[in-house]
Each structure stands twice: as C-alpha cells, then as structure tokens.
Design goal:
Length: about 190
C-alpha cells in the first residue's frame, strides 16, 4: 500500500509538473553529468514509449523473460475515461509483462511539454522533500530511485523518463538500472 501511495504521489509530481526554474536545492547531489558530446546527442523521446525498447531488448537487459510490450493508459486517463463513459486511451506508458517476481516493468515518458531538465529537477526536489529517495550515479545526466521501484532519469536536456516495476523487490534497483542503461544507450547511438 505504501508503494502505491508513493507511486501515485510520484505520478502527480513527475507527470504533472510544469516547467520551472532549475535550482537544485534539496535531495542528494546530482550524479556526474555525461560528457558534453553525449548530452547534446539526445533531442527528444518518442511519443510512443514502447519505441524506446522492444520486449526482446528489455529481456536482454534484465535477463528476465518478457512476454510482451504494450502501451497502457496512466491512472489519470483511466479515471477520466470512467467518468466520461469511454474506453481509456493508451498514452505515455509502456508495460513489459514478465512472468517473474516483478510482474511488469514499465517505461514512462512524460508529455513533451515536460521533457526538459527544469521539470525533472522540480519533480526530483519535490520527491526528495517528501520521501526517501536515492541518487543513482552513472545513468544519464542524473538518476534517482524512489520507493524502491521507480528509477527517474534525465538523459540530455530534453529526455526525461521513468522506469518502474509493479512491486518493489530486493532486485528492483538493479533491474531498473539495467533497463534505464539500455534506454540511454539507445538514445545516444
């Protein structure tokens, strides 16, 4: 239950954040920035988050079986659709189903309007103020782990994404890092 609360709070913070100043108060220090040549390589993320990695690429990165990848709606869209009496539309989440202890691994790409470092830093600062989070070095320009099952990554000035597992497990941080590194490697090629 606590994880679901963290996930809902994170979703509200990360996906509902408008552009803001990029001050970096609060939380742990950011990880070392990627070299300048690498940072400028990422222009933007695809609208369809399932275009970032195939099911096979997630399976290779995590060493877990992945049965399928599919675009799914976020909780806000599900609630709006129920209120409006219509089917929910898939949007910025790709779910990779795995018959493992994690059940699924998701990649979440915020709307284009929030694909900037200012929005990333604001979401990071707000989360670190409210919850325990851990800075993760060596992935993109900055990365941090929230609730033990959500890895948030800034890759370049306009590429921000989250990798999450449905449930937090002991190996969640390493599985999330493996997927995030695979996404970053794809973005920088």
């Amino acid at each position: 239950m606590r994880f679901k609360i963290h996930l809902l709070v994170f979703s509200a913070v990360a996906l509902g954040t408008a552009a803001c100043s990029s001050g970096r108060s609060g939380g742990a220090a950011p990880a070392a920035a990627a070299p300048e040549a690498v940072r400028t390589a990422v222009v933007s993320l695809p609208e369809n988050p399932c275009e970032l990695l195939t099911a096979e690429q997630v399976a290779a990165a995590t060493q877990l079986p992945v049965t399928r990848a599919r675009r799914v709606p976020d909780i806000g869209e599900i609630i709006r659709a129920e209120k409006e009496g219509r089917p929910a539309r898939a949007n910025t989440i790709c779910s990779y189903e795995t018959p493992s202890e994690f059940e699924s691994i998701t990649i979440i790409v915020p709307p284009v309007s929030e694909q900037n470092s200012a929005a990333y830093w604001k979401a990071r600062e707000e989360y670190f103020r409210q919850f325990h989070a851990e800075a993760i070095a060596g992935i993109g320009e900055d990365a941090w782990l929230g609730a033990g099952a959500m890895l948030n990554v800034l890759a370049g000035k306009t590429a921000r994404f989250t990798v999450a597992t449905r449930v937090a497990r002991e190996k969640s941080p390493e599985v999330l890092a493996a997927v995030a590194r695979a996404v970053v490697a794809r973005l920088y090629r």
